[in-house]
Amino acid sequence: MPGLWTRTLGELTLSYVPDAGVAMIRERLYPSAAEDEWHEHRPHLTEAGHLSMGCGALLVEKGDTRLLIDAGHGRISGSEVEHFQHAFGHVRDLPGSLAALGVDPGELEMVAFTHFHGDHTGWARPDATDDPRSLFTRARWMVGAGELESVAAGTGPVLAGQDGRTVTVTDGTEIAEGIRAWSLPGHTPGHTAWVLDTGDGREVVAFGDALHSPVQVAHPEWEVILDTDRDEAERSRRRLIDQLARDGVYGFGVHFADQQLGTVDGSGRWRPWSDAADGR
């Protein structure tokens, strides 16, 4: 399971803010994957054969800009698991993780969401804290076009103060200098990656749930049970993988356990930062 870390790329400082670890039931998450396809991916599995994942957020700092991408899992119980999950660990860490970074969440002016699933909106939800403004009392919510419309009627607001605080952005919109939206729909209708310019000719793509695990990079054809439009999600995965295979392009996968930052190498496999930092 991932711990807090900070990396600097050019003018960009990135910090992973952990909130929870999750063990996923792999055959339920990826129902079309054959058992023999998992043999080469055993290092990503627990001793019990479950797929290790993390949940959290990415703190982005560049010049005078400071924002969070996604908002963790929030107020969950370690006993609350879906049919595709086995167990949670180190739950409710995000406020403490921000404190360890010296960040007051009440001072953040922007939270950008990849999508509206509960493990990404956690501490921004109306019930996240006793304060109805959520943990992020001042922030504007940056949301991809189509995501608000995907919320089922009658379910109430997903985000605290949703009507007055949400800014809807389209593909290519720059929400701050060097930070722009990239529409990658399929997992949800408005699923959005955030492309971060390092200022030195490189970029980092925070891609949310366009990919859930490093094993998926080698298998973009695998069906994902959580995708709302599976054909469109596969198209988005392939677009993303092609982009991550380009020189100077790195990816951040929030669910990628302890390999969140990396790139795609010449063999079409995920290459984590520990290897990728020196180039390809």
Low-confidence stretches: none
- Based on the structure given, which CATH architecture is correct? 4-Layer Sandwich
How far apart the termini lie comes to 26 Å
CATH topology: Metallo-beta-lactamase, Chain A
Keywords: Hydrolase, Metal-binding, Zinc
Family: Belongs to the metallo-beta-lactamase superfamily.
Pfam families: Lactamase_B
Protein name: MBL fold metallo-hydrolase
Description:
The protein is α+β, with helices and mostly antiparallel strands. It has a single domain (5-276), classed as Ribonuclease Z/Hydroxyacylglutathione hydrolase-like (Metallo-beta-lactamase, Chain A), CATH 3.60.15.10. The protein is built from six helices and 15 strands. A hairpin with a 5-residue loop joins strand 14 and strand 15 (270-272). The radius of gyration is 17 Å and the shape is globular. The two termini are 26 Å apart.
Question: Quick gist of this model?
Answer:
With 280 residues, the protein is an alpha+beta fold.
